[in-house]
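BUG: 3D viewer hangs when loading the predicted structure for this chain

Environment: internal workstation, default settings.
Expected: structure renders.
Actual: progress bar stalls at 90%.

Input used:
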Amino acid sequence: MQAYVIRIHWGAMLRTVIVSALLVAALAYTLQPLTTATAAGNWGLGFGQEGQPPTGNAGSAELLQNDAYYIGDTAQKTLYLTFDAGYENGYTATILDTLKKQKVPATFFVVGHYIESAPDLVRRMVDEGHLVGNHTDHHYDMSKISNFEAFSQEIAVLEQKYEAVIGKPMPKLYRPPQGKYNEQNLQFAKRLGYHTFFWSLAYVDWYVDDQPTAEQAFAKLIPRVHNGAILLLHSTSATNAQILDELLTRYKEMGYTFGKLTDLYQTKKQPASTDADCFFIT
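Structure tokens produced before the viewer hung:
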């Protein structure tokens, strides 16, 4: 009788161990981070050989599933110039003067404060043929927003401010603030009819009190330019205002032309994948 009872206890313990192991395995599985590159994070690039497209932390084909882009057609010597505009500090008029002189189109991704504080500049952007895109109303970290209504509110309020100034709907171009995003954000933007745009060329130009020299800017922006590049600059940068004329001239001398971001999806061309072109570097 005593041996029988012991066997019963061992069997119960074995079942408990097995069940516990299965629960731990299931919990571990659910806690695993998503391996999809677009699951979450900050947009980042890895550059390899000079003049060649960089890799992104998500590939062109993967992004395209959610109407998102970071690069254009790498078989074409076309560049796409964009500016993020969080506020106005006196340099945008000079930038617009240069763009007009060079006959180069650009896209300005603006926030709510910019439209409210500099409506005349927003009107000038549109009047001179540039695109104005949605950088959200408050420039929040949108990757922390998992509710569609909250996400769409940040987009819709900016649309309303734009339409109040311009008198027509805002182009459906979206850039995640700070490059922070997740796949759900991209799906939300697509659901709202937007195309999301990251970038394949940028440099550290956003610290207004620690601006790079012209030489430092050219050292990043010339060797790393590549076919199909979506170039991100900040309109708050004194250096950008200073170098833009020469930068555009040098790009033209290298054989590049300039397109609009809308060309990337209105022509229905899928960007060439560059996932295996380069290696990440620090």
